[in-house]
Design a protein that fits this description.
CATH superfamily: NAD(P)-binding Rossmann-like Domain
Distance between the termini: 44 Å
Shape: globular
Radius of gyration: 17 Å
Largest sheet: 7 strands, parallel
Strand order of the largest sheet: 3-2-1-4-5-6-7
Order of helices and strands: EHEHEHEHEHHEHHHE
Helix content: 40-55%
Strand content: 15-25%
CATH topology: Rossmann fold
Number of helices: 9
CATH class: Alpha Beta
């Protein structure tokens, strides 16, 4: 279809990114399922989308590698004709008190979460078609400021800091740029290493008294990437059930 929108989703092989990819496909977008290393999981996402009648392909890329990211966008252009929506869901989590921070781990975290976001955003700024949308992922921990999350929150604070700037730099192209900042969300990454009491305590903090789900976050992203979200621009959307 000539008017079909095409989405590139990084970090789409699992967790929130996977559900974002399937949600955009369900909304009628062709999807490039970007993944860092787990080809089998990415292929499962494509199979899920195509079985449901959608269109999708996999594409491997380290988001911090500009050549790999350019190739990711090339795949979208060669397979589906261009790029209209970019969702950068790729990210790395590293928890440590600041006093005990391992600087090599800090560098690895920031390479993915900061450099990777800028690399994807740069390619998006160059190649997203008129009327498109760019959606980045942050975390509500930037505001909640839980102990142990210093390195992670700092990296995502950088993402939030560039959001309105990039939106303003897109002036005249009818392209929106927003960031979604999930609160505690029931993914494997989030639940790993947490005991039942900790999970229960976090689930009770929002007024809605539950953890978020990947589908909750994907619905917000799909709104921003679709026709209903065209007047939302340069914003940080804290999708967290009202947790403070």
């Amino acid at each position: 279809m000539a008017d079909q929108r095409v989405a590139v989703v990084t970090g789409a092989s699992r967790g929130i990114g996977r559900v974002i990819a399937t949600s955009l496909a369900a909304a009628g977008q062709a999807v490039v399922v970007g993944y860092a290393g787990d080809e089998a999981a990415a292929t499962e996402v494509v199979d899920e989308i195509t079985t449901a009648g959608g269109q999708a392909v996999t594409a491997q890329a380290d988001v911090a590698d500009p050549d790999a990211v350019a190739a990711l966008f090339d795949t979208a252009a060669q397979t589906f004709g261009g790029v209209d929506v970019v969702v950068n869901s790729a990210g790395r989590l590293y928890l440590s008190p600041i006093a005990e921070l391992d600087l090599d781990s800090l560098d690895a975290l920031h390479r993915t979460n900061i450099r990777g976001t800028f690399v994807v955003a740069r390619e998006a700024a160059r190649r997203v078609r008129r009327g498109g949308a760019v959606v980045m992922l942050s975390t509500s921990v930037v505001g909640l400021q839980f102990p142990g999350y210093g390195a992670y929150a700092a990296s995502k604070g950088a993402v939030e800091g560039m959001t309105l700037i990039l939106a303003r730099e897109m002036r005249g192209r009818d392209i929106t740029v927003n960031t979604v900042a999930p609160g505690p969300t029931a993914t494997e990454l989030f639940l790993e290493g947490k005991d039942e009491a900790t999970v229960e305590r976090l689930a009770k903090q929002p007024p809605l008294e539950r953890l978020g789900t990947p589908a909750d976050i994907a619905a917000v992203v799909a709104f921003l990437a679709g026709p209903g979200g065209r007047w939302v621009n340069g914003q940080i959307i804290r999708a967290n059930g009202g947790i403070i």
